[in-house]
Amino acid sequence: MTALSQHQQPMKSILVIGLGISGYSVIRHLALQPVSLTVADTREIPPYLNSLREHYPGVKAITEWIPPGNLDDFDEIVISPGIDLPESVKVSNLVGDIELFARTVQAPVIGVTGSNGKSTVTMLVRDMLLAAGKTVAAGGNLGTPALDLLEEEKPDFYLLELSSFQLETVCNLNLAAAAILNISEDHLDRHATIQAYRDTKLRIFRNAEQAVINRDDHHLRQVSTGRAGNPIGFGLQSAAQDCEFGIREQNGTRILMHGEQPLIREDQLSIQGNSHVLNVLAGLALVHAAGIRLDDAVIRAAANFRGLPHRCQLVGEYRGIKWVNDSKATNPGAAKAAILSFNQPIILIVGGQGKGADFSDLGQVIRQKVRHVILIGEDADIIDAALSDSTQRSSAFSLEQAVEMAGKLAGTGEVVLFSPACASYDMFESYIHRGEAFSEIVSKRVKA
Question: How far, CA to CA in Å, does 412 sit from each of 226, 323, 400?
Fold first, then answer.
């Protein structure tokens, strides 16, 4: 007889790569199971190292890179979404926290992905579900890690914002309804091509019962939605079918429609503009796809939704000039959408870490809609090269200087739009830190 009894199995050995908020949620989840846990993070002092040592002393922590050959020693590897293994590392047993969530969840799940607007639509859908009398646990790429949601009382719906990084390692996530809001160039430093990035996003439909898709997005035409079959479309044109969501104009006012059924006028929404209208249409389509009736309470929740911080957020209006914080615009598509939301002349502050994106489309929109561009950050020269010769531009060495320059350039009736089109890490800790800095600078230097 072997050292193990006939009824025992060898303890499963699991490696968790990354000890940030996602990795630590994985540790908490797996620590309740009979497994052998190791966590690896190349940072000398990862964010949750001290907490790990205090609460989970039995978990082995490695603060250096594990040789690729040693990865074969583990039965399963759980990788945090922000970590990209080198191409030379071939691992067949790789999963992420969303896949672990999928193995355990016991209530319907709604998933939201896209290049832009994920967080806004996720929170909008949450508000509409709550208005319908449903209990909701929301998280994922936004706020609470998905596995932490399982520690709460089981809700009527789980609602997950899902990034392309999370979807890379998802195979068995069953979704009651899933949406792709849009596709624009983002994270090409990781996905290499827009096609590869789009294909990763499409993984959200693999096991979805109902797909919701932006029919106006040319990257999403003629794509497979898996077993979900015919998707529910939404867009800024008239709804071509009864199941679709769209716009009808009547007496100069746009009306959000479900097929031939009017739902709400645009002027009844707390925020106007194409970007927000699309977000509301997507939210309505998702709630409908999840089997919720679009009654007065649900429609009222959509109308009252005021958006999220750092997303085309008006932070002040001084001397007839609007100052708008759109720090969440971390890719060119988001900045393009923000620019197109305004009819007034725009002074644009843009720049940061470009993540390998192509700024040519953004350059064309800037030429048509922006009066003056102020360039900041690490990849300012790359953005500058994408601008038309006729576009007036300046360069600033800091956000403070950019705000000062914008204040001198802008006139009554104009908008100063801070929509970086880039990641923030060259100058700030996060897009939130960047947005808060912009709002504070505007308050101190402009309002005074």
Answer: 51, 12, 21
